[in-house]
Each structure stands twice: as C-alpha cells, then as structure tokens.
Specification:
The structure holds two protein chains of two kinds. By secondary structure, chain A is mainly β. Chain A has no helices and eleven strands. Chain B is mainly beta. Chain B has no helices and eleven strands. In chain B, strands 2, 4, 5, 6, 9, 10 and 11 form a seven-stranded mixed beta sheet that branches. A four-stranded antiparallel beta sheet of chain B has the order 1-3-8-7, with no helix packed on it. In chain B, a hairpin with a 4-residue loop joins strand 7 and strand 8. Chain B is globular. The chains are: A mainly beta, B mainly beta. At the A-B interface, strand 4, strand 5 and strand 10 of A face strand 5 and strand 10 of B.
C-alpha cells in the first residue's frame, strides 16, 4: 500500500490552523498512525487508530478519515509543532508503509 | 522511563556486514513485538523488519529479505538486526521501535544508530 502525503511543505503562522493530508492507494480501514519528527530526533507517535491521541499528545492535535483519505489537524500551531509529520498504515502488512512526510514550517 | 538504545552502526564497505543491537529498559521487553525502521539521509521513514514477542515470527521488507536477520534475546532485553551483503542504498539511520499493541504502530523509539555503506 502506497501512502501519499500532501502538501510536501506547509507554511503556517504560529497560532494558525494546519491541515495535513494522507492518502492510501487502497483502503486501510482506520488503521492509520501519525508521527512527528523534529530535526535530529527520533519520530514520536502522535495518533493511532486514525483519531486516538497517544499518551501526552496535546488536544490541539486531531486525526480524522477512513478508508483511503486521512487528515491530521493542528488547531493552533505552537512553536514546538514546526517539524515533519508522517502517516503510516498498518492495515495490511508486511510491509508497513509510511508516507513521504509533510514539513510544517514557519510562515 | 522506557528507553531503547541502539548501537553497532558504523562504516562498512559494500558487501560487508554489521550486527545492530537495541537495548531496552523501563518496560517488560518480552511482552512486545519490535521493529526496525531506517531513514536515509534527508529522506523519510522506511520500515525494515519486525519480530514478535517470543521471536518465533519475523517479517521483512522485500528490499532486505535474505540479507537482514532480526532476532531478540529476551533474557538480555535486547533486539538485534544482522545486516549482511550491504549495499550503498542501505546507508541510513536505523531505529528500533516498540510495537504498541501488536498492531504495527510504534510508541517507543530509540535515537538510532548510523550505518554508512561506502567504498
């Protein structure tokens, strides 16, 4: 299953809303996770099961979608949110597959 | 605190081998599936391999099948990845990660160990 993320880069001002998209080449049901990776750091799990926030993840992060279309929304961007975000499907594996990432940068 | 610490990376010539290790602490290692994920310089995340909690089941990406071997020693709380017949395209940062719920998503990650394949 190929995962495609868009846009590749998203320029957003602090305090604004960011909407990231992830599309699967075929249905992954709700078996989708989101990760965030900051420069020089390991990825961190944000969301699994399409919409369940991992432990300690702030409520400004929300996930939605099903089947082949998914969205990660950050309601009000904080300085620490500027990073790269990856989606990953775990509905049909091996292989587990990640999207190419969306870089959220400061506008 | 749950922690994964990778080691064993290095510079190796094409065709060479390395054994990567991942030491776990802060959780009951033997209860969890584990994964290796790699990241080429400046690129995205690529899943490499998985092993179930008792080591009896393993899966691999097609690109590494037959060249890489995942294993674990639950008595030592350690995960391994034997990487052989290395290619230039295997270069990258190799992360070990804990599978959260026997499902294929990963909630604890190490900081990675770097493998560089170059002549």
């Amino acid at each position: 299953i190929v995962m495609t993320q868009s846009p590749a880069t998203l320029s957003v001002s602090p305090g604004e809303r960011a909407t990231l998209s992830c599309r699967a080449s075929r249905s992954v049901s709700s078996n989708l996770a989101w990760y965030v990776q900051k420069p020089g750091q390991a990825p961190r799990l944000l969301i699994y099961g399409t919409s369940t926030r991992a432990t300690g993840v702030p409520a400004r992060f929300s996930g939605s979608g099903s089947g082949t279309e998914f969205t990660l929304t950050i309601s009000s961007l904080q300085s620490e949110d500027f990073a790269v975000y990856y989606c990953q499907q775990y509905n049909n594996w091996p292989p587990l597959t990640f999207g190419g990432g969306t870089k959220v940068e400061i506008k | 605190e749950m922690q994964l610490v990778e080691s064993g990376g290095g510079l190796v010539q094409p065709g060479g081998s390395l054994r990567l290790s991942c030491a776990a602490s802060g959780f009951t290692f033997s209860r969890y599936w584990m994964h290796w994920v790699r990241q080429a310089p400046g690129k995205g995340l690529v899943w490499v391999s998985h092993i179930n909690n008792d080591g009896t089941s393993t899966t691999y990406a097609d690109s590494v099948k037959g060249r890489f071997t995942i294993s674990r020693d639950n008595a030592k709380d350690t995960l391994y990845l034997q990487v052989s017949s290395l290619r230039v395209e295997d270069t990258g940062l190799y992360y070990c990660a804990r599978d959260m719920h026997f499902g294929g998503y990963m909630d604890v990650w190490g900081k990675g160990t770097t493998v560089t394949v170059s002549s």
